């Protein structure tokens, strides 16, 4: 495992982050989830990502159990707030009320006094940005949060937030958590240049495009039983954007490229993401320890320009680059 600075902050994160979206408390039983976390730690993964709403708050609870007895200073714990965590009118969004209540609830579920990185899970169009940023700043000053970030914000939203943080003397954002993969590159034209300028690092999710870039989904054939594409709890909906014959046919052409550099297609996908200098870490999920062991092999891999060019040529026509695709649905809609 290798480690990178998170943006221009002083905190280092592992190149591979273990995330428990759509797994802990949902696809994976508690005992299996704990084995995955322990396997990740044994393999040098020190950065662990979750969110208050994953599996209806159960994911944080499982992660808290998995980390029992592990020296708190040895890992970086990341969580988020925004999406609904209850039926109440204030159990969602980025109001001061919800941020404070959500953070306190996350700390209890995670069985810790602080989180290393607290993130706005989307941009809240209903709450004044000053209110959100003020609450985040107070969490840092209270010691409950060490650093702050956001997920799936566009360049204009990021710039507006940084301006307020500078004017008010608030702690600045140090991280962005966008979807990013060979197939989904919407951050490249606007978000990445701004973040590079402002010292914000990317901790990207879905580097394997929810498993599509592993090559296991074949054009014209049914998805394998037990795969994410068959998960009716959320996985199937998310992966559907990539489940076209055109995309799946192009992805199959990545296999010989991966073999050239002695990687699996999934490892190639992760290594490709990490080839971007603004990426601090790539989040992987897993239902079995063996999957983590395989994907960790992408850490430290350097892809040369020829390989990168071959990947671009193979995927030409199926890559999404439109920055307008970065959106934040209203959590009250």
Automatic annotation (TrEMBL):
<dbReference type="InterPro" id="IPR020471">
    <property type="entry name" value="AKR"/>
</dbReference>
<protein>
    <submittedName>
        <fullName>Unannotated protein</fullName>
    </submittedName>
</protein>
<dbReference type="InterPro" id="IPR036812">
    <property type="entry name" value="NAD(P)_OxRdtase_dom_sf"/>
</dbReference>
<dbReference type="GO" id="GO:0016491">
    <property type="term" value="F:oxidoreductase activity"/>
</dbReference>
<comment type="similarity">
    <text>Belongs to the shaker potassium channel beta subunit family.</text>
</comment>
<keyword id="KW-0521">NADP</keyword>
<dbReference type="InterPro" id="IPR023210">
    <property type="entry name" value="NADP_OxRdtase_dom"/>
</dbReference>
<dbReference type="GO" id="GO:0005829">
    <property type="term" value="C:cytosol"/>
</dbReference>
<dbReference type="Pfam" id="PF00248">
    <property type="entry name" value="Aldo_ket_red"/>
</dbReference>
<feature type="domain" description="NADP-dependent oxidoreductase">
    <location>
        <begin position="15"/>
        <end position="315"/>
    </location>
</feature>
<keyword id="KW-0560">Oxidoreductase</keyword>
<dbReference type="InterPro" id="IPR005399">
    <property type="entry name" value="K_chnl_volt-dep_bsu_KCNAB-rel"/>
</dbReference>
């Amino acid at each position: 495992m290798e480690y990178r600075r998170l943006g221009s902050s002083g905190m280092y994160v592992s190149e591979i982050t273990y995330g428990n979206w759509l797994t802990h408390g949902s696809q994976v039983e508690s005992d299996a989830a704990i084995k995955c976390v322990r396997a990740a730690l044994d393999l040098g993964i020190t950065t662990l990502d979750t969110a208050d709403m994953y599996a209806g708050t159960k994911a944080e609870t499982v992660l808290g159990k998995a980390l029992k007895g592990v020296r708190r200073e040895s890992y970086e714990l990341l969580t988020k707030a925004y999406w609904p965590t209850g039926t109440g009118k204030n159990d969602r969004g980025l109001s001061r009320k919800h941020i404070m209540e959500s953070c306190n609830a996350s700390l209890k579920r995670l069985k810790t006094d602080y989180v290393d990185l607290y993130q706005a899970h989307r941009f809240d169009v209903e709450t004044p940005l000053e209110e959100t940023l003020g609450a985040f700043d107070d969490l840092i000053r209270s010691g409950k949060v060490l650093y702050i970030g956001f997920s799936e914000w566009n360049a204009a939203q990021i710039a507006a937030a940084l301006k307020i943080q500078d004017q008010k003397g608030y702690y600045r954002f140090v991280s962005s958590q966008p979807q990013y993969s060979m197939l989904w590159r919407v951050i490249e034209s606007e978000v990445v240049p701004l973040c590079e300028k402002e010292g914000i690092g990317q901790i990207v999710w879905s580097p394997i495009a929810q498993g599509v870039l592993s090559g296991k989904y074949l054009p014209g054939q049914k998805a394998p039983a037990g795969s994410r594409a068959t998960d009716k709890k959320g996985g199937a909906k998310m992966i559907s954007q990539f489940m076209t014959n055109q995309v799946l046919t192009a992805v199959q052409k990545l296999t010989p490229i991966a073999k050239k550099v002695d990687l699996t297609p999934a490892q190639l996908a992760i290594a490709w993401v990490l080839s971007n200098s603004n990426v601090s870490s790539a989040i992987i999920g897993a239902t079995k320890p063996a999957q983590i062991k395989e994907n960790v092999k992408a850490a430290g891999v350097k892809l040369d320009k020829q390989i990168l060019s071959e990947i671009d040529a193979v995927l030409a026509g199926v890559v999404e680059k439109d920055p307008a695709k970065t959106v934040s649905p209203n959590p009250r809609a």
